[in-house]
Amino acid sequence: MNFDGIWTPVVTPFGEDGSIQLDTLKNVVDTLIDQGVHGLIIGGTTGEYYALSKEERKQVFDAVAGHAKGRIPIMAGINATTTEDSLELGQHAKAAGFDAILVAAPYYCQPTQEELLTHVRRVDDALDMPIMLYNFPDRTGTPMSLEFIEALRDRPNFQAIKESTGSIERMHSLATEFRDQLQLSCGMDDQVLEFFVWGARSWVCGASNFLAPEHVALYQACVVDQDFVAGRELAMRLLPMLNLLEQGGKFCQYIKHGCELAGLSVGPARAPLLPLSEAEKTSFRRTYDALVQHRG
Predict the structure, then answer these.
(1) Where is the active site (predicted)?
(2) This model's pTM is above 0.90
């Protein structure tokens, strides 16, 4: 499977009572497709999968697959604390019509590398779908070592990796030693230019929920046109926002507030995450306005 392009990890809209708003979700999907993103991820970190029940996650899979299937590639995030739950979610996503799955290390339990290898092999055996690995040890507590990746060479379904460690050295290793094994996807937004320079052709980017045109333009410049001078100019415009998201400590809340500013009423993040303060909203609005004033 080709994972090139801008992949948006779609937000999960909530009402003020905390319920999932499926009609709003479909509107978000339509907007992203209209704005030219290349793929959608449902059930990622930005979608607050950790705050949804298993049944709610299946409900979201069904809604998006029924609405978007055939219009754009869709990938299902199936991470859970147990292998059995991951398999159940993956089987549901496959039956719904998803094209690929996003597989991270089960969070909190901190499996060893051998245990993690057994986990992902079981997922592969059970689902037989294209897989993007998701390496984000700051969130999961468990890294995907280079030795772990090497051990998957004989598994052709492992086709891409979203790399979110922030380590430039590790990104270099993936871009050189593993370039014939895995498609490299940027998962550290404030390093996207570095990823593209080193040959990545994919970017999983939460801010594309509300800044899709800017993300698509940067991808077009760097990956399609190979114009890194133009790419650097576009990246410089985006960088204040990307820095705020990566370093501000309230990623999901900022993404959802950005959607609100862009005209998508996706509601609050679920507890324990709290709403942004007025000062945080004001600071974010300044950064947002400075960025979108360059549009068309």
Answers:
(1) 134 (proton donor/acceptor), 162 (schiff-base intermediate with substrate)
(2) yes
Does residue 43 surpass a pLDDT of 80? yes
Q: Out of 58, 162, 250, 256, which one is annotated catalytic?
A: 162
- Give Cβ neighbours of residue 129 (< 8 Å, ≥ 6 apart): 90, 94, 98, 99, 100, 101, 157
Query: Backbone phi, then psi, for 168, in 5-degree steps?
Result: -65, -35
Angle, to 10 degrees, between the axis of helix 278-292 and the axis of helix 251-261? 60
Report the alpha-carbon distance of residue 136 to residue 251 in Å, rounded.
14
Q: How far apart are CA 273 and CA 254, in angstroms?
A: 11
Domain-wise residue ranges, the chain: 5-293
Clarify whether 162 is annotated catalytic: yes
- CATH assignment of 5-293? 3.20.20.70
What average pLDDT score do residues 86-103 get?
A: 98
82 marked among binding-site residues? no
Query: Is 109 a residue whose pLDDT tops 70?
Result: yes
Catalytic annotation, pick one of 49, 134, 219, 288: 134
204 annotated to bind ligand: yes
